[in-house]
């Protein structure tokens, strides 16, 4: 933004901002307020990437990934119609994931953290959870 545009905003904020917005739109730019916090990615590939960063061990990541693929298809908002299980790891009830963060409904990182904690505490590791899943069809 140029110095002259800043001066116009200071002297007449509404008028200058409107003029700057028109100029930006004409130039093909978009003016938008920056969000306080970036929205959590919700695509399957973004969720997988986050999990891979959080689980650097390849065998543990693969086990975690297989469970999530079967449970939710890497859909952060997957909901089981019959049980109400929710999220990547199909927590039941989904609200249990609030212990990992208030954004549990939409943030894959929060859901992955909760899922890892659950798998580690109940089965010793994601690989242990996958072994159980293979034997039982659930974990």
Automatic annotation (TrEMBL):
Cleavable signal peptide: 1-38
Record domain Transglycosylase SLT: where: 63-130
Organism: Streptomyces populi
InterPro entries given in the database record: Lysozyme-like_dom_sf, Transglycosylase_SLT_dom_1
Pfam families reported for this sequence: SLT (PF01464)
Superkingdom: Bacteria
Protein name: Transglycosylase SLT domain-containing protein
Keyword Transmembrane included in the entry's annotation: no
Keywords, comma-separated and alphabetical: Signal
């Amino acid at each position: 933004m140029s110095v002259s545009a800043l001066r116009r905003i200071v002297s007449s904020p509404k008028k200058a901002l409107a003029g700057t917005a028109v100029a930006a739109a004409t130039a093909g730019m978009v003016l938008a307020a920056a969000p306080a916090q970036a929205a959590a990615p919700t695509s399957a590939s973004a969720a997988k990437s986050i999990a891979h960063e959080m689980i650097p061990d390849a065998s543990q990541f693969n086990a975690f990934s297989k469970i999530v693929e079967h449970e939710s298809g890497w859909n952060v908002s997957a909901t089981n119609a019959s049980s109400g299980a929710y999220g990547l790891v199909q927590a039941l009830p989904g609200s249990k994931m609030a212990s990992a963060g208030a954004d549990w409904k939409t943030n894959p990182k929060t859901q992955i953290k909760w899922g890892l904690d659950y798998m580690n505490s109940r089965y010793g590791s994601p690989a242990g959870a996958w072994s159980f899943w293979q034997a039982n069809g659930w974990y």
